[in-house]
């Protein structure tokens, strides 16, 4: 069974076990998908209401965008497990002789590159989700605005957790130029998007307090 198709209680149980997958990256993708879905719910509760007729077209656009992001993030939760397996096998390769060491280093480098592409993409998708969540929070139905704020909090956590999964892989790379370029891309997202999530949270708090 695919992890994204597991009942929640089974997924959590496997996640808590010593099984190599799912791991942190997959959990981040799932959290991002849930956060995005909460934004989508705001859109669903906004369309069809006379009070919000002026933003209905925009809500439908955002809902379509978030539906796509939800699917992509769930697919990434599966992909994260797939790319970890080659890396896990690479760790176990023999390294007694010089030839074995060279082969292991080559295989490890390739596996590490593949393994860090998924959390990097999870980060990118979470950034996109946060852009949509900002609009849902600003223009969506007030009865569901708390869900937009909750979605932003979840996407922020998913983004930051995915970043850690990027850095744990780039730290082991021999190609430091490549590792540095990946790290810089991740750090750029970390500079902007968590702040955006905090701003969404604060804006929702103000709407709920007034």
Helix-strand blueprint:
Elements: H1 8-16, H2 24-46, H3 56-91, H4 98-139, H5 145-170, H6 176-209
Helix pairs in contact: 2-3, 2-4, 2-5, 3-4, 4-5, 4-6, 5-6
The main sheet comes to:
none
Instruction: Sum up the overall morphology in one term.
Output: elongated
Stated plainly, the CATH topology is called Four Helix Bundle (Hemerythrin (Met), subunit A)
The residue-averaged pLDDT reads 94
Number of DSSP E strands = 0
> Domains counted in the coordinates: how many?
1
Taking Cα atoms only, what radius of gyration do you get, to the nearest Å? 20 Å
- Spatial separation of the terminal alpha carbons: 47 Å
Question: CATH H-level name... which superfamily?
Answer: Formiminotetrahydrofolate cyclodeaminase monomer, up-and-down helical bundle
- Low-pLDDT sequence parts: none
Class in CATH?
A: Mainly Alpha
What CATH architecture label applies?
Answer: Up-down Bundle
Helicity level: over 70%
Number of helical stretches of at least 4 residues? 6
Structural class: mainly alpha
Order of helices and strands: HHHHHH
Strand content: under 5%
